[in-house]
Amino acid sequence: MSYSSKIIESAVEALSSLPSIGKKSAMRLAIHLASDSFDKKEKLIAALTSMTNDLKICNQCYSFSDTAVCSICENPTRDRSTICVVETIRDLIAIEDTGSYRGLYHVLGGVISPLEGIGPEQLEIDTLITRVDELEAKEIVMALSPTIDGETTIFYINRLLESKDVNITTIARGVSFGGDLEYADEFTLGRSIKARLPYQQRQIL
Amino acid sequence: MSYSSKIIESAVEALSSLPSIGKKSAMRLAIHLASDSFDKKEKLIAALTSMTNDLKICNQCYSFSDTAVCSICENPTRDRSTICVVETIRDLIAIEDTGSYRGLYHVLGGVISPLEGIGPEQLEIDTLITRVDELEAKEIVMALSPTIDGETTIFYINRLLESKDVNITTIARGVSFGGDLEYADEFTLGRSIKARLPYQQRQIL
What we know:
Oligomer: homodimer
Number of domains of chain A: 2
CATH topology of the largest domain in chain A: Dna Topoisomerase Vi A Subunit, Chain: A, domain 2
Order of helices and strands of chain A: HHHEEHEHEHEHEHH
Number of strands of chain A: 6
Strand order of the largest sheet of chain A: 4-3-5-6
């Protein structure tokens, strides 16, 4: 692409390095920002600068945090006996958004994947075990992807925690709400039939 | 949405104020940037800062520029006797990208639109007339949208330039290359038949 301005050119280049933003979208964004109010640009610059300089990783759950310990780990109203184990911070936010969970989290930073050369020592598994002891946790909710690697990770963590007095649970798998049965994949539908629940129990959920 | 960090929250807010970026995409972008290398963030911040502080509008063609006069207007290899009139800087870049035009540009900043209360005095029309005189331009290429407002603007500018020794041309309209005739709208197809060219002449284009 050709531009009459090197400044716009480097803005387009920087913006198009972001995921899911191509050259054309980056150009639209750059021109929008260039024509935009001074305030809006300043706000975006301030947000990015503070992200570069001030953003920390919580030393408890390994999610993003503004302070040494994040606002979820510090929140006294949350159930400190339950820890939900997730792969990424994105998964944590997705679960937080549902408003259905009031315990703590633990971000592993991935799952065990022999094919990709990711072993347990590269993940926050040791710290999870330490936390289970420290918090005297009663339940560990495994909210990992329903993949072979996810299952392997659950199996591995389960083994480490076997000797302790803690329940390991996994999030329910089955057909999606509002989904059409005929479009559900065979594996999900099969497991969903095998894992059927008494109607009374379902009512409670 | 809930976040463990106010910093991420304000980054998401700033990013989602951009066009075509919703809350979910903004979150993905913010988390990507937060996990990203220091260099990439710095580059984006530098590009935005320089856009806020250093970006100018060319005092000749009214496109974005790093200096008082933009690189296209200053380029000595461009044909200074032809001016292409466009609505927006986006249109300018789209035409530059084709590599089919070697003249100068003039960005009107919109088209005359009585319904939206945009009159000629709000557009860079006076400056266009002055430039035609200064450059002793031989051709003005009207590359405006094929809408009623676009046509009105061409008509208005044409009247102002009638007395001068300058050719007014408009970009060709017709069916798109690679387009299926049956899907072309009636109006375009109709005009495209009326404006048919001798085969020899088409070969030259």
